[in-house]
């Protein structure tokens, strides 16, 4: 049995060793999930709703325990980790209403009755990344279970601990055995098996665009449906007519939250030329005041990067000191620390185009609205972005013009479970969350009943 050592990224201390699941054990879990799913889909909608509500309740009760696990495993600040655990409870509660609301249609036709049913697709394979292990898992499994599916879930190698605990809580809540199975393992083994196994009818993947493309190619083999949530290189567009103090004060959290390990991170700040100097004057103290340190402390805003290999990758983007405008602080000593870093490169530089996935932001000046839009859209990605302006017409024009799935005006709003989330272009395929999410785990069936 291969094992994987889990390391606390803030201290580099060993936490525990995890046994990695192989293909045989994955196949076994999928076979059991097939049986459990059929029983679950045949359970009364109101009973399924009840179980999901108890699941939500137990997760809410264990908020502190789950949050502490994430602080140790992923280095997330405790305040953020509590929000993440609560998000799992909220998502479950929200989708607990869905089993009784998977309402089909009755379509007028000649000679009988024509109705549609939303049939559960069957077993769903969910592959999650290490940046937000709890919420991203829940955005997949909660609507999938609500739609009548069974779930096999593979967490990222570095951060499996909260998903393992959540699956235990599901059993405590009364979710039937084998309906939500967490399989810690390698992407190339367990994740790939979800793609190749014919009984896994849908794959939900969040991670890098490169791996997403591999999974999409694999799914084509069986015409398997999939949802992809991939990378981002999101623009934070600051116009001269905006509340500049507010825009500058909000910008650090917009990019450095979760140490920038967020596909929605506003990692490109675009500032109208006439206020560029003024913005940088306001932005510098805000970056320097961003509190980086012990994630167990209540007032910490940013913890370490998740792992040594990731720290090395991020460090590789800032090897040329001449690009650095200014930096915040970070602890020295053990832990995978990297300070908030502000770069002012040329438009063509790779730090402007590649997803760094760390606390590094590039700031570029722009000429006018057309230039801002051209710059914002000059990327293969299209996940999120922000627009700062007091001109409502401009807010409308620019938010319609930016090619991205999730935008906020005069804020960097985070993801909400009640609204759809997903990307344009190479940031993804399909949407998660929002009222329609359970439908993504169903097939529409149309049946005609002849009246004679
Ligand atoms: P990152 O580069 O941020 O680690 P990845 O896209 O490589 O992101 O990983 C996201 C998730 O996808 C992880 O759970 C990982 O194990 C899994 N994964 C990696 N490669 C594959 C693959 N070939 N097939 C399925 N899952 C994979």
From TrEMBL:
Q: Where is the Aldehyde dehydrogenase domain?
A: 3-447
Transmembrane portions of the chain: none
Q: Which Pfam families match?
A: Aldedh
The record's section on CDD domains has: ALDH
User: Which keywords belong to this entry?
Assistant: Oxidoreductase
Which residues does UniProt mark as catalytic? 229
Key word Oxidoreductase present in the record? yes
What InterPro entries does UniProt report for this protein, alphabetically? Ald_DH/histidinol_DH (IPR016161), Ald_DH_C (IPR016163), Ald_DH_CS_GLU (IPR029510), Ald_DH_N (IPR016162), Aldehyde_DH_dom (IPR015590)
- Name the family the entry cites: Belongs to the aldehyde dehydrogenase family.
**Under which name does UniProt file this protein?**
Aldehyde dehydrogenase
Question: Which lineage do the record's taxonomy fields give for this organism?
Answer: Bacteria, Bacillati, Actinomycetota, Actinomycetes, Micrococcales
């Amino acid at each position: 049995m291969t094992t994987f050592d889990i390391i606390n990224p803030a201290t580099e201390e060993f936490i525990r060793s995890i046994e990695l699941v192989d293909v045989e054990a994955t196949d076994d879990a999928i076979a059991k999930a097939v049986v459990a799913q059929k029983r679950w889909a045949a359970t009364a909608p109101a009973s399924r709703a009840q179980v999901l509500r108890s699941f939500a309740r137990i997760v809410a009760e264990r908020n502190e325990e789950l949050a502490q696990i994430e602080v140790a495993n992923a280095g997330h600040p405790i305040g953020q980790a509590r929000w993440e655990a609560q998000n799992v409870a909220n998502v479950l509660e929200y989708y607990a209403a869905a089993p009784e609301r998977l309402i089909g249609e009755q379509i007028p036709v000649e000679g009988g009755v024509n109705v549609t049913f939303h049939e559960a697709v069957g077993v769903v394979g969910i592959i999650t990344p290490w940046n937000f292990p709890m919420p991203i898992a829940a955005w997949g499994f909660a609507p999938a279970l609500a739609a009548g599916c069974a779930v096999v879930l593979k967490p990222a190698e570095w951060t499996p601990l909260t998903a393992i605990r959540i699956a235990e809580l599901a059993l405590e809540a009364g979710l039937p055995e084998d309906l939500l199975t967490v399989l810690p393992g390698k992407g190339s083994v367990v994740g790939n098996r979800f793609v190749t196994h014919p009984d896994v009818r849908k794959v939900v993947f969040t991670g890098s665009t490169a791996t997403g493309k591999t999974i999409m190619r694999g799914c084509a083999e069986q015409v398997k449906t999939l949802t992809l949530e991939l990378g981002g290189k999101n623009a934070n567009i600051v116009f001269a007519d905006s509340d500049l103090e507010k825009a500058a004060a909000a910008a650090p959290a917009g990019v450095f939250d979760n140490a920038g390990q967020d596909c929605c991170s506003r990692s490109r700040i675009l500032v109208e030329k006439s206020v560029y100097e003024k913005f940088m004057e306001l932005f510098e103290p805000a970056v320097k005041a961003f509190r980086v340190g012990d994630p167990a402390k209540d007032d910490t805003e940013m913890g370490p990067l998740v792992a040594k290999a990731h720290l090395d990758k991020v460090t590789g983007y800032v090897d040329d000191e001449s690009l650095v405008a200014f930096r915040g602080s970070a602890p020295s000593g053990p832990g995978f620390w990297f300070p908030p870093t502000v770069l002012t490169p040329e438009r063509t530089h790779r730090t402007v185009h590649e997803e760094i996935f760390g606390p590094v932001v590039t700031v570029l000046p722009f000429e006018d609205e057309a230039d801002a839009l051209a710059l914002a859209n000059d990327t293969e990605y299209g996940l999120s972005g922000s627009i700062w302006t007091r001109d409502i017409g401009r807010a409308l024009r620019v938010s319609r013009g930016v090619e991205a799935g999730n935008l906020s005006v005069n804020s960097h709003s985070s993801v909400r479970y009640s609204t759809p989330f997903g990307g344009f272009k190479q940031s993804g395929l399909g949407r998660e969350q929002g009222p329609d999410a359970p439908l993504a785990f169903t097939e529409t069936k149309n049946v005609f009943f002849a009246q004679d």
